[in-house]
Amino acid sequence: MLMRTDPFREMDRIVQQLSGTSGTWSKPSVMPMDAYRQGEVYVIAFDLPGVSTEAIDIDVERNMLTVKAERRPTGKSDGVQMELSERPLGVFSRQIVLADTLDTEHIEADYDAGVLTLRIPIAERAKPRKIAIGGESGRKQISG
To answer: Signal sequence: where (predicted)?
Structure first.
């Protein structure tokens, strides 16, 4: 149901983790995700801990799904001295090419406990259907 668009994306993610660099709007970091089919719905879950819903942007154009998010630094008051900072900040993004068999007009999005979950129904035209064969004329009728 999904097509990988960049085979080097995973290598970029590893390099960013090792180098400690944060994503920017021009070169965002990748966000981890899971994708699976659950009955008649395709589910994609993105890990975005510490990101507010206002900082998440979801777009779909034709069959290209784009999810962008920004984790901003927490407000620091005067007199605070940072001892350790391992949580990545910056911009995270993921682009996914969705199959034609998915109904991109009815995508649902939920965000809970740092996980953004998108539910995309399987399109009616992609579901299996019976084809009835008519009488002597050999007419065929499709039933959905």
So the answer is: none
Residue 23 DSSP class: B
pLDDT at residue 6 greater than cutoff 70: no
* Pairing state between β 29-30 and 41-47: unpaired
Task: Identify whether the C-beta of residue 1 lies closer than 8 Å to the C-beta of residue 37.
Answer: yes
- Sheet with 108-112, strands from edge to edge, namely 33-38, 41-47, 115-121, 108-112
On whether the CB atoms of residues 98 and 65 are closer than 8 A, the answer is: yes
For 144, the token pair is 């959905």
Reading the block at residue 16, the tokens are 């960013």
| CA–CA distance, 138 with 73 (Å, rounded to integer) | 69
